[in-house]
Amino acid sequence: MLKEENTQEILHDLGEQEILNRLRKYMDYGQIDDDTALIKSYKKELIINTDMLVEDVHFSEITTNPNHIGWKAVATNLSDLACSGLEEVIGITVGLSAPSSTPWSWVDGVYTGIKAALNKFGGKLLGGDCSNGKQKTLCITALGTKGPLNLHRSNARPGDYLITSGPHGLSRLGLSLLLSDPITKSINVPNLLKEHAIKAHQEPQPPIKALQTLLKCKPYAMPWNAAATDSSDGLLEAIESLCRSSNCTAVVDHKNLPKHADWPSGKQWNDWCLEGGEDFELVVSLPPNWAKAWLKAMPCTKAIGRMKEGPAKAMWSNGETIQKAMDTKFEHF
Amino acid sequence: MLKEENTQEILHDLGEQEILNRLRKYMDYGQIDDDTALIKSYKKELIINTDMLVEDVHFSEITTNPNHIGWKAVATNLSDLACSGLEEVIGITVGLSAPSSTPWSWVDGVYTGIKAALNKFGGKLLGGDCSNGKQKTLCITALGTKGPLNLHRSNARPGDYLITSGPHGLSRLGLSLLLSDPITKSINVPNLLKEHAIKAHQEPQPPIKALQTLLKCKPYAMPWNAAATDSSDGLLEAIESLCRSSNCTAVVDHKNLPKHADWPSGKQWNDWCLEGGEDFELVVSLPPNWAKAWLKAMPCTKAIGRMKEGPAKAMWSNGETIQKAMDTKFEHF
């Protein structure tokens, strides 16, 4: 064990040139030789998003290996593109800083995860930069073409259905399982739910299929406008952000919270569903006819409430304001 | 003084939402409300570049205030776009991490510098992300359209002239002046040179005008191909990178090193010219006719040597290999 650690290559031994040389295999030929990457003309509107992921703030080696970290970084970004009407992923750039004592195998693992996600969801590794830094930090910028659908948080209208593309709270449960949190032992969590939860935490899927189905379901005569965001900061935060940007009230039906089939009942489990975060599902506000078509076409979607005129907030159908219960407010400062 | 420090707002007091709220003034309306930024269709090839800048590796508060840091981050990126044939800057995204104890005024200053550079060189602030982190880190991704010129490091050909768009070593001298390095006191540095050097260090200019002139000078019958890179990692490194990518030898004329008119003589000063770095000038390999036209059209350019067949290295015209002399190898690990 000691021997292995001693002979492990670290970034300091390699230096910047050799690191870039080794990253060549993940790039298209020639891109690493120039100062920029070239992107062919798409003749379409583009959407762009940047996410900054910092060790011990956004990820931890206890619960996610380097492969997962790379995969999640891409999935997080593509989830943002999806809820903005993505048509085709063009690619990503990667800024990476890490202490010079970091093993090369860590960087290699992160890039392997990045490449695996790009292979699955499309897009190229367009280049990037690496630097020495005290804390492992990944900054990913993703670029894609925008399809015909205009998805903005501000497009919600009173009368709309509020729909999610899938169950919530799984990633948070996965985290607790990976940390052997006592709460996951106090209750009998079915094995299938455990599997789904850990996968949701380590290898989340951006809601690209859900978006494609949403497009196909649009009733012919309706304009190409809808309100959407993703639930990366939790379901409740997603709903509230639609309310804030569209200046209306969301009325959520407590018995229709989007839960996994095997989800246990209890306050903690409800809180995780509403505020667990890192769910990467679409949260969409849609006119009724379109909503019904999407619900029918995609069984994992769930109608959780309606939008109505009123102050920008989320309330239960009994009229009570939905209060945030968890400490985790995704306040990254 | 103590009172002022106590009442200074820090990021922890504001939280992520309030920070984003305050950054709104730097963005186009509405972009901060959505998960991504929308970019209109350009119907052209695009070029993209990402730079990761870490405090105490790439910048220091001793020599650069927050305004300078923001400006330099943009200039660094646009310099890379320029040496890849930039036509129009579309915009940038900014990933920023900083300790939660960082004063808001620091972030505000960085964004002020970023915006000033975009106002000068074009392009919008397209969005970004911010996070808590142990070390101040900026990750900027710049996107632009590519003009007709195909500038690649691999396009140098034997017989080409090697030309730089301006003098080298100024930024390194500026750094030494700002640090009160004894070497800058042992010699009488003219005031004008001091001014230019400090400005080159704190407020560098990407070589966009030089590129535009290069385009205008292209002889009619010649193909739109040339070799270029920028000298952000030093003049010698830029020359060597052209040699490596084009697999030929650069022969540099010692008496034609690109120096400021008032540049002192001596080994240290030659070393700074060749390896000081952060010069952000174009280093171009051009067929003779095109080279002569550019030299004539732009007085600050300088022909420093020729390319010839041979191994991928830089040598003096007396046949000696140019040796790296400085410790600063821009090895950021």
Helix run count of chain A: 10
Q: Can you tell me the CATH architecture of the largest domain in chain A?
A: Alpha-Beta Complex
User: What is the CA-atom radius of gyration of chain A, in angstroms?
Assistant: 21 Å
Mean of all residue-level pLDDT scores of chain A: 92
Q: What distance lies between the first and last C-alpha atoms of chain A, to the nearest angstrom?
A: 38 Å
Family (chains A, B): Belongs to the thiamine-monophosphate kinase family.
Binding site for Mg(2+) 4 (chains A, B): 35, 80
Binding site for substrate (chains A, B): 58, 278, 330
Binding site for Mg(2+) 1 (chains A, B): 50-51, 129
Structure description:
The structure is a homodimer of 333-residue chains. With 333 residues, the first copy, chain A, is α/β, with parallel strands linked by helices. The first copy, chain A, folds into two domains: 2-146, PurM-like, N-terminal domain (60s Ribosomal Protein L30, Chain: A), CATH 3.30.1330; 150-316, PurM-like C-terminal domain (Phosphoribosyl-aminoimidazole Synthetase, Chain A, domain 2, Alpha-Beta Complex). The first copy, chain A, is built from ten helices and twelve strands. In chain A, the strands form two sheets. A seven-stranded mixed β-sheet of chain A has the order 6-8-10-7-11-9-12. A four-stranded mixed β-sheet of chain A has the order 2-5-3-4. In chain A, helix 3 (66-82) runs parallel beside helix 4 (104-121) and helix 5 crosses helix 6 (191-202). The longest helix of chain A has 18 residues, at 104-121. The two termini of chain A are 38 Å apart. Mean pLDDT of chain A is 92; it is low at 1-5. Chains A and B meet through helix 2, strand 1, strand 2, strand 3 and strand 4 of A and helix 2, strand 1, strand 2, strand 3 and strand 4 of B. Strand 1 of chain A pairs antiparallel with strand 2 (46-54) of chain B.
